[in-house]
Design a protein that fits this description.
single chain, alpha+beta, Alpha-Beta Plaits, four-stranded antiparallel beta sheet, 6 helices, binds zinc ion
């Protein structure tokens, strides 16, 4: 019976072989670019530089993922062995004679459309010369002697000449004819074992592309440093994106407030003593110099004050601007500058 799970060294070799093959492929790719006559000198130098950078990250990444990938492969094969071992044999009765069929073979089947592999069983009935395949979709009966056209029994003859076996199928009823040749001299291709020179070359390449634990640790440290650096750069960029806040002193803010109130039709502007518990807060009071109603006066003054101090560390407080008998009042709040304020 086929065993899927192999020794760990098998998977390690498989992984390293993959690393070497991909490494060589990429080296070749950049090398060809550097050799290309149409490519200018600068691009050639760039190709070489890119190759070095690419291989640095590629070999490092292969090192980082190696253990995990090998464990996953082994786990997959272990599961497949379990499945093959533990799936119960189906009860197979011949669809021709009704007698139990003879178990011939079982194997694992992986349908790419389905996630999970399943076991497929093949049974024969020697008496009736038929077979049945059982899988997760049910059973599939096969009659090798049946004419595909009229479904009557074919006349089948085998003839051997040297290494070639010819099978002739003929239907005496409808005339269907089919011939198959099997050449026994053609042997399935067996993977050649590598020569000493090939093996030496592979080991040399492996030293270049498969990192040692020391080299791997060094790579991981560099990547962690790079990530830290990226984070810092990201934070700096984020800070730059924040709108700049113009910080005004109490003297400056009161001067500007007086100007904006006057420009919005107010006179006799006075300020209260600033409250310095928590944020700095002070009150302004002014007399409306224009003949306009409370609604208009409040709206115009409020809008002018908000607009004036947008982008600074000062803002009109949420109670806005009040109006009583021609007196306008409001409060401004100032924050000491810190990184977290955005207006
Ligand atoms: Zn049978
Ligand atoms: Zn036929």
């Amino acid at each position: 019976m086929i065993k899927y799970l192999k020794d760990r060294s098998y998977y390690e070799d498989l992984y390293d072989k993959g690393t070497v093959e991909w490494g060589l492929w990429h080296e070749e790719y950049f090398f060809n670019r550097a050799k290309d006559k149409k490519v200018n000198k600068l691009s050639k130098e760039m190709a070489k530089g890119l190759c070095r950078i690419y291989l640095y990250f590629y070999t490092g990444d292969r090192y980082v993922k190696r253990e995990d990938c090998i464990n996953k492969w082994m786990e997959r094969d272990r599961k497949e062995d379990d499945l093959l071992e533990n799936t119960l044999l189906p009860e197979a009765l011949c669809f021709m004679c009704g007698e139990p069929m003879e178990f011939a073979h079982k194997h694992l089947k992986t349908d790419f459309k389905e996630d999970e592999p399943h076991v497929e069983f093949i049974f024969h009935c020697k008496e009736c010369e038929v077979s049945s395949v059982f899988n997760n979709k049910g059973r599939d009966d096969r009659i090798p002697w049946q004419c595909p056209d009229c479904k009557r029994r074919l006349d089948i003859k085998h003839k051997r000449k040297n290494d070639v076996i010819t099978t002739k199928e003929h239907c005496n009823f409808c005339g269907y004819h089919h011939e198959d040749k099997l050449d026994l001299s053609i042997k399935p291709e067996v993977e050649k074992s590598p020569t000493m020179a090939e093996l030496k070359k592979f080991r040399e390449d492996k030293l270049r592309f498969c990192l040692s634990p020391q080299e791997g640790m060094k790579y991981m440290e560099s990547v962690a440093n790079l990530e830290r650096l990226n984070k810092i750069i990201g934070e700096i960029k984020e800070k730059d994106r924040k709108p700049k806040v113009k910080v005004l002193s109490i003297k400056e803010v009161q001067k500007q407030l007086k100007e904006v109130l006057k420009a919005s039709g107010c006179e006799n502007v006075t300020f209260s003593d600033p409250d310095t518990v928590g944020d700095v807060v002070f009150k302004f009071k002014a007399i409306d110099s224009r003949e306009r109603g409370a609604y208009d006066a409040r709206k115009i003054v409020k809008k002018a004050v908000i607009t004036k101090f947008t982008g600074t560390n000062w803002a009109l407080m949420s109670d806005g601007v009040t109006y009583r008998l021609g007196i306008l009042e409001g409060r401004l709040k100032g924050k000491e500058y810190s990184e977290d304020i955005i207006y």
